[in-house]
User: Fold Ribosomal protein uS12 methylthiotransferase RimO from Actibacterium pelagium.
Amino acid sequence: MAYIPRMTTNPPNLRPDLAPTPRFDQKPREGQPTVGMVSLGCPKALVDSERILTRLRAEGYSISPDYSGADAVIVNTCGFLDSAKAESLEAIGEALNENGKVIVTGCLGAEEDYIRGTHPSVLAVTGPHQYEQVLDAVHGAVPPSPDPFVDLMPASGVKLTPRHYSYLKISEGCNHKCKFCIIPEMRGRLASRPAHAVVREAEKLVENGVKELLVISQDTSAYGVDIKHETTKGHRAHISDLARDLGSLGAWVRLHYVYPYPHVRQLIPLMAEGLILPYLDIPFQHAHPDTLKRMARPAAAAKTLDEIAAWRADCPDITLRSTFIVGYPGETEEEFQTLLDWMDEAQLDRVGCFQYENVDGARSNDLPDHVPAEVKQERWDRFMEKAQAISEAKLAAKVGQTMQVLVDEIDEDAATCRTMADAPEIDGNLFIDEGFETLSPGDLVTVEVDEASEYDLWGKLT
Assistant:
C-alpha cells in the first residue's frame, strides 16, 4: 500500500455510539461575544448542538473551537453508558478548569444532582433538547451583542460536520422499553417531526451544497407512528414515504437506527432503484432468544436471518450495519456461541460492539448472574475477531470493482473518501493516493478498487 492512513478508521475498539468530531471554522469579529461548545455522544446530540449554535449565531454570538477564546462554554453531555457519563463529567471538569464559565446540557443534564455533586460551580444544567433554557443560561453568562450588518447567518444554519454531509433528525424519543437503556427516560417517548418540515430542511441543506443526508432518530422505522402517519402539505409521515421524498432531492440518503419491522421491506425496492443508499443500520443487539427476552427486545433472531436473505435477494448490493452487546447479565457461553454462529450466517458488513455496562436507572442492573469483566472482555475479543474476519473477506471481494465515492478530506498524501457502504467515522474509508490533487471535499468521483484491508479500501480514479 502506497498510503497508510494515520489511524485506521473503525478500529475494533471504536464505540459505535459516537458522532463525528465537531468542526468549527468561523472567526469572530472584534468585540463579538464568543461561546465554546463541547459536543459529546451520538449524532442526535450533535444535531442538538447545531440547533443551539444556530440560535446563538442568529443572536450575534461567535462560536469558539477552544476554551481560551470563549466567554463561556456549553458542554452537551451523553448519558448512554456509565463510561459515557464519566467522560461527560471529565469534559465538564476540563471546561471548568480551562474556562470557568460552564453551562451543561444534553442527556446527562437530566440528572442535575448527579452533575452538581461533582461540579457544583457549573452555571446551569438543562436536559436534552431544552434549547430555550440553554439560551437563557448563555444570556445570563454572556449578554448578546448582535450587529445585524455583520452577523449574517448561512441559510443552512450552523453545521458541525463538513459542508458536504449533514445529519437530519426526524424524531425525538423512543417507545421501546429495553432493559439496558434509559434513553426513553432521558428523551421521552417518540415525537415525530411533521414530514413537510423534514423535507423542507433537507431541501435547504441540498440547496446549500450537502451531498449526503444521514437520517437519524432513536427508532427511524417508527417515524410517524405517534402522529398517525399524518399527511401535511403533501408529505406523509411514514418512513417509506419520507425516504422516497428525500431520495428525490438528488443527494445520497443514508438511514440509521432502523428496527427490522416488517414494513422495512418497503424500503428495499427504493434502494434497488438507487433512490436511497443501499444501507441499513439496524441495532440487532444479540441473537439468542433468551438473551433478547432478558433485554426486552423482540426475540426473532432466526426470522431475522430470513429477512436479511430477502433484503439481499431484492437488493444484492445492500450493506448491513449493526451493533451488539456482549456480556449481558445471564449470558451463558452457549448463548454467546449462538451469537457467533448467527454472525457466521448473517455475514453483516459493518459491526460495532459494546461490552455490557450497568447504567444508573436501567432495569438490567437488577438482573441476576452478571458476567465477570474478564469474561466480557474475552467474549468481546472473540466477537470482534469474527466481525473483522467477515469485514476483511467482504472488502477483499470488492477489489476490481468500479464504484462511486464521496470525497471527505484531502491532505498532502491522499484523498479520504467513502463508498455508499460507509457512514462517516463509524465505517471504513476508501483512499485515493494518486492523481487526487484536483479533488475537493464533497466531490463525487468514480474509482476502481485495487486494494483492501480489514476495514478500508484503496482505489484509483477512472
Summary: The first strand starts at residue 34 and ends at 39. The chain has a mean pLDDT of 88. The longest helix spans residues 373-396. The chain has three domains: 34-141, 165-396, 402-461.
